[in-house]
Design brief:
- The protein is mainly alpha-helical.
- Helix 5 runs antiparallel to helix 6.
- The longest helix has 14 residues.
- The radius of gyration is 15 Å and the shape is globular.
- The protein contains 6 helices and 3 strands.
- Strands 1-3-2 form a 3-stranded antiparallel beta sheet.
- Helices cover 41% and strands 7% of the residues.
């Protein structure tokens, strides 16, 4: 997750246990907790959710002869659409938009789906 520091202004923000299973391969925040969480924790939870599902296509997908991305497994996934669709019902739209803008500044709006390796471990 190379954009983590820049997206969150270099902050390390811990999420409480009630936020969801932060050790899961794909973090899924508790929506009830998310509604009442402080803004910085909302931002961290949304970023963690997004970053466990999507990645920078520059390093994740092949490129064509012109340098464009070749999305071989669907996509591109648009950060603005994905984040607003998932979080607008639980987080103020302005907070979601703030994360969208930061993500777009660091990587752009087009993202690749992150693949999770099957390890046989629980989850």
């Amino acid at each position: 997750m190379p954009a983590t520091d820049a997206v969150l202004d270099g902050q390390l923000i811990s999420l409480p246990p009630e936020s969801g299973d932060v050790n899961a391969p794909r973090f899924e925040p508790n929506d009830d907790w998310l509604r009442a969480a402080p803004r910085d924790q909302q931002m961290m939870a949304m970023w963690r959710w997004f970053a466990t599902r999507y990645e920078d296509p520059h390093t994740a997908v092949p490129h064509d002869e012109q340098g464009g991305y070749v999305f071989t497994e669907g996509g591109p996934w648009l950060a603005d659409e994905v984040l607003h669709e998932r979080f607008d019902a639980f987080v103020p739209e302005a907070v979601v938009e703030s994360l969208v803008q930061r993500v777009q500044q660091e990587v752009g709006n087009e993202w690749a789906k992150r693949r999770i390796e099957e390890s046989g471990a629980g989850g």
